[in-house]
Write a structure and sequence with these properties.
Layout lengths: L8 H6 L20 H10 L2 H5 L2 H14 L5 E2 L6 H8 L1 E4 L3 E4 L6 H6 L10 H14 L5 E6 L1 H10 L7 H9 L1 H25 L3 E6 L7 H18 L3 E2 L2 E2 L2 E5 L6 H4 L6 E3 L6 H8 L4 E6 L8 H15 L5 E5 L9 H15 L5
Parallel strand pairs: 1-4, 4-5, 5-8, 8-9, 9-10, 10-11
Antiparallel strand pairs: 2-3, 6-7
Helix pairs in contact: 4-7, 7-10, 8-9, 8-10, 9-10, 10-11, 13-14, 14-15
């Protein structure tokens, strides 16, 4: 079944091997800023109707690749599939973001949560992975992903939108035993989930720690990084003789890149609040780096976008180990043409950093 990988720039860069230019993909590259996505979603019904139908999830994954010369595809799914499969009842209210019918607030509820079977409750995800992998025909690698235990726990404990994380931080400081039990169960669930994605054909993995940056340095180590490291240790890092690179991304975690680099991952995501030159010093050659243009630059002029791409490339400097990306997901109101300008600029301007 498996085609040889035609464009392996993304895999090589995450493993700090030489490439002819800097590879690029965009977080949330499949989604609402694309009219073809909005149309398919309207026909399908809801976002989860897209995620749970492997053919539709595959179609949505491929949409940005038809428009732009991207160097990687990312599985179209969501980080909240695991808590949903644990029976919490995921739903989305327009304008308010994700919520759960049932929140997790005490040790008894934590103990009762099942570890979802990736070949049962989450089979729609592994089916999507194998469908996408077949349709990509080896053109670019497919990235599988999950949320971090801490980030999933914030959604599960809060149950709905939050401004100050009072419920989840209340449990972390007030009942650390229950919180550790929850994070450990999530880490175990994520390990089997990501290994199943690799088994189904994912060629790289990424862990989104969207809310790690709201923690104190001590709490970050104890409640977020520790469990991401546990996951990295539990992952199968090779399939069919190929290394499966793992990227960790803590939004707002720029100050902690040095300790994150000790986790054993291959690459670290960086948001736009940290310069890549500083990030590169912090990781000291232990990992590659991914990032980090402010997604809001895509509202600026073409010239300004190109200027920012040049600044970021110069900040990282010469040599391998850089995957270009936005510092967080592309916004839904960005014009698709602006993404085109951004991607083209990375193609053109990055060559001289690889000579
Ligand atoms: O990057 C990609 O193209 C792959 C798909 C992907 C989605 N969500 C699709 C999606 C990925 C990797 C995610 C991860 C995700 N989901 C994260 C971590 C990354 C990040 O952005 O920090 C988080 C925190 C979530 C939880 C979540 N799911 C949120 C906050 C939302 C937005 C809700 C809203 O109403 O704005 C979602 C829904 C979601 N996930 C959409 C997409 C394309 C929008 C769904 C829609 O309305 O069509």
């Amino acid at each position: 079944m498996s085609h040889p990988l035609v464009n392996d720039r993304y895999i090589k860069a995450t493993l700090q091997q030489d490439t002819d230019r800097t590879p690029i993909w965009m977080m949330r590259q499949a989604g609402r800023y694309l009219p073809e996505y909005r149309q398919l979603r309207a026909e399908a019904g809801s976002f989860m109707d897209l995620c749970t139908n492997p053919e539709l999830a595959c179609e949505v994954t491929l949409q940005p690749l038809r428009r732009f010369p991207l160097d990687a595809a990312i599985l179209f799914s969501d980080i909240l599939t695991i808590p949903d499969a644990m029976g919490l009842g995921l739903y989305f209210t327009p304008g308010e973001g994700p919520a759960f019918k049932k929140a997790v607030r005490d040790e008894k509820t934590v103990k009762e949560l099942p570890i979802p079977d990736p070949n049962q409750e989450l089979k729609y995800v592994t089916d999507a992975v194998s469908t996408i992998r077949r349709e990509l025909k080896g053109s670019v690698p497919l990235i599988g992903f999950s949320g971090s235990p801490w980030t999933l726990a914030t959604y599960m404990v809060e149950g709905g939108p939050t401004k100050n994380f009072s419920e989840v931080k209340g449990m972390m400081y007030g009942n650390p035993k229950a919180m550790h039990l929850l994070l450990d169960k999530l880490a175990d669930s994520i390990i089997v989930y990501l290994n199943a994605q690799v088994e189904a054909g994912a060629q790289a993995l990424m862990i989104f720690d969207t809310w790690g940056g709201v923690l104190s340095p001590q709490a970050y180590q104890e409640f977020s990084l520790r469990y991401m490291s546990k996951i990295v240790d539990g992952l199968n890092r090779e399939k069919d003789g190929q290394r499966i690179p793992v990227t960790l991304f803590t939004k707002g975690g720029g100050k902690w890149l040095d300790i994150m680099a000790e986790s054993g991952c291959d690459c670290l995501g960086v948001d736009w609040t940290t310069d890549l030159s500083e990030a590169r010093q912090r990781v000291a050659g232990k990992t590659a780096l991914q990032g980090n243009m402010d997604p809001s630059l895509l509202y600026a002029s073409d010239e300004r976008i190109r200027e920012e791409v040049e600044t970021i490339l110069a900040s990282y400097g010469h040599g391998n180990g850089h995957v270009f990306n936005l510092g967080h997901g592309i916004h839904q109101f960005v014009k698709p043409e602006k993404a085109g300008v951004f991607i083209e600029a990375v193609h053109e301007l990055s060559k001289k950093y690889h000579q």
